[in-house]
Design goal:
Blueprint lengths: L2 H13 L5 H45 L9 H5 L2 E7 L4 E2 L10 H6 L4 E3 L9 E3 L1 E8 L5 E11 L4 E9 L5 E8 L13 H5 L16 E3 L10 E3 L5 H15 L5 H8 L4
Parallel strand pairs: 9-10
Antiparallel strand pairs: 1-2, 1-5, 3-4, 5-6, 6-7, 7-8
Bound molecules: flavin mononucleotide.
Flavin mononucleotide (FMN) binds next to helix 6.
């Protein structure tokens, strides 16, 4: 196109009435471009803030599950009470192969060298990381008071991510809490109901014979009330998911080797 031709096009465009098809499309495209530029710049600019908030939320959840959360507290400061350690799941021992302060659990779970595909996968997670960051809470004498273990698994609509806090004997549950899920408000999302969460406090994982007995069900199992958390009313499928994921993570493929070592005082 020659210079005179393109000048002619611009002149014709400018001379066209404001409601002409050309001008309407031009304005619509320009508005879309400007709006998408604003949205993407905001997303990029706010990413560091989102990361900080995500970390704060995770720390708050760990404080909550350990019973140390107080509204208005400085979360980062209070979180210093915990000692993060990277645990090798199969051996149940901590490893210094990674720096616990920077170990990326999510990346490890997707890294072929640091994870394994699950054949037996009751929690519906597909792959399992070989290493997990766990958080220790020590007593004044320096012994272990509680361990906070990350857990996750499929409910009805979503993967639920959370923590379980276990006492120093490796068997008594102090608390359970999910910090991310997509279950239905009023049904599966009742996993966040403080009354339901409170039911976990004091429950036991294994019986005297060492068999894993903790169960989320509609009625009490033969093992007894110590091992029983009532299923959520109207949300049996989410409850089954929670039962599966808790039993998976507390079992041999999960933290059982670590919990046994903790019980034996070897940690
Ligand atoms: C829109 C909708 C959302 C639902 N969300 C959940 C849910 O988040 N978790 C769940 O277990 N069941 C949910 N249900 C119910 C299940 O389909 C199923 O009926 C229920 O888990 C059976 O539990 P019940 O035997 O305690 O009634 C939902 C149902 C509908 C129609």
């Amino acid at each position: 196109m020659s210079e005179t031709q393109s000048k002619g096009l611009i002149a014709r465009f400018l001379a066209a009435p404001p409601d002409s098809v050309g001008k309407t499309i031009f304005v619509a495209v320009a508005v879309c471009l400007v709006a998408s530029m604003i949205v993407s710049s905001a997303a990029v600019a706010l990413r560091p803030v989102q990361e900080v908030n995500k970390l704060k939320d995770k720390q708050m959840n760990i404080l909550q599950v350990a019973g140390l959360f107080e509204p208005g507290q400085n979360v980062a400061e209070a979180f210093k009470a915990f000692e993060p350690q990277v645990l090798e799941l199969t051996t149940g021992r901590f490893t210094d192969q990674f720096d616990a302060a920077t170990f990326d659990d999510k990346a490890a779970a997707n890294d072929a060298d640091l994870s394994r595909a699950l054949d037996d996968d009751p929690a519906g997670i597909g792959r399992q990381a070989l290493y997990r960051t766990v958080y220790l809470l020590r007593d004044e004498a320096g012994g272990i008071d509680k361990v906070i273990l990350p857990i996750h698994g499929y409910g009805l609509w979503s993967t639920l991510y959370g923590f379980i806090a276990v006492e120093e004997n490796g068997n008594d549950i102090f608390g359970l809490q999910f910090y991310q899920h997509g279950e239905t408000p009023g049904l599966g999302a009742e996993v966040d109901n403080p009354r339901w969460k409170a039911m976990w406090n004091g429950k036991k994982l294994r019986d005297d014979a060492g068999d894993l007995q903790i169960t989320v069900a509609k009625s009490q199992p033969a093992a007894g009330a110590d091992f029983y958390v009532d299923a959520l009313a109207g949300a049996t499928l989410t409850s089954v998911g929670v039962d599966n994921l808790v039993r998976f993570w507390m079992g041999e493929q999960g933290y059982a080797p670590f919990l046994e070592a903790l019980k034996a005082g070897e940690i």
